[in-house]
């Protein structure tokens, strides 16, 4: 966690996997879950879920808190805020909004 | 009773002493907290307030524990009419030196589920923490406005 480029590498690597993004979505829907709770919602072995959580924790996207015997997992959005600031906020908002509206209109027309 | 909690963590390239000062110094807070600052004696039992640049008190409460430069616990009550009935939340800030960085963990919780207060502060904290990290590491902040999209419209 000491070098900015390494932090970004860990972050984008963590986000590059659909199962890990699903884990983040699950935590967003309900924060502070145990490993057992997360496993119930995923079609994966317990060991695979543990490994994915380790990658997310190394990227600082998941923070863990021990409560008694349980380890609770929380979505940590601070690195996402940093992505937002570096890659999104500096570009003009109205243009992004116009593109977004266009995409929505076109997809609606085709759907 | 059910509880609503969020845990935010960031690693800042600084020292625990500098980070503690940044968290408790009003002039420093104004730079990363979108013009807001805290008023407090920063010792256990002293009152605490989060005040806007125009002098409006947004949140108020009391310091529950202060162990510089490691741990700060604030009893935190939002003063908005729609949030005040939820009562007090607890905000714990923990600072831990890890290599060349300090791990800052902010845990904010309230004994109710769901909580409008937790929903409200959960959107603000990442921006504040991200600004604080930028300010300590580079000397300037990343976001000038709390809600830049509203400005662009």
Description of the molecule:
The complex is a heterodimer of chains A (111) and B (153). With 111 residues, chain A is mainly alpha-helical. Helices cover 66% and strands 11% of the residues of chain A. Chain A has a two-stranded antiparallel sheet with strand order 1-2. In chain A, helix 1 (4-15) packs antiparallel against helix 4. Chain A starts with a helix and ends with a helix. The mean pLDDT of chain A is 89. Chain B has a single domain, classed as START domain (Alpha-D-Glucose-1,6-Bisphosphate, Chain A, domain 4, 2-Layer Sandwich), CATH 3.30.530. Chain B is globular, with a radius of gyration of 15 Å. A 7-stranded antiparallel beta sheet of chain B has the order 1-7-6-5-4-3-2. Residues 149-153 of chain B have low confidence and may be disordered. The relative contact order of chain B is 0.22. With 153 residues, chain B is of the alpha+beta class. Chain A binds chain B through residues 1-2, 7, 31-32, 60, 63, 65, 74, 76-78, 80-82, 85, 89, 92-94, and chain B through 5-11, 13, 98-101, 105, 107, 126-127, 129-130, 133, 142-143, 148-149, 152-153.
User: Major sheet of chain B: size, sense and barrel closure?
Assistant: 7 strands, antiparallel
Show unreliable segments of chain A.
Answer: none
Helix content of chain B: 25-40%
Q: Kindly state the number of beta strands of chain A.
A: 2
Termini separation of chain A: 45 Å
Main beta-sheet annotation of chain A: 2 strands, antiparallel
At CATH level 2, the architecture of chain B is: 2-Layer Sandwich
The helix-strand sequence of chain B is EHHEEEEEEHH
Q: Which range best describes the helical content of chain A: under 10%, 10-25%, 25-40%, 40-55%, 55-70% or over 70%?
A: 55-70%
Number of domains of chain B: 1
Mean pLDDT of chain B: 91
**Total of helices of chain A:** 6
Beta-strand residue fraction of chain A: 5-15%
Largest sheet of chain B, order of strands side by side? 1-7-6-5-4-3-2
Number of helices of chain B: 4
Which fold name is given in CATH as the topology of chain B? Answer: Alpha-D-Glucose-1,6-Bisphosphate, Chain A, domain 4
The global form of chain A is: globular
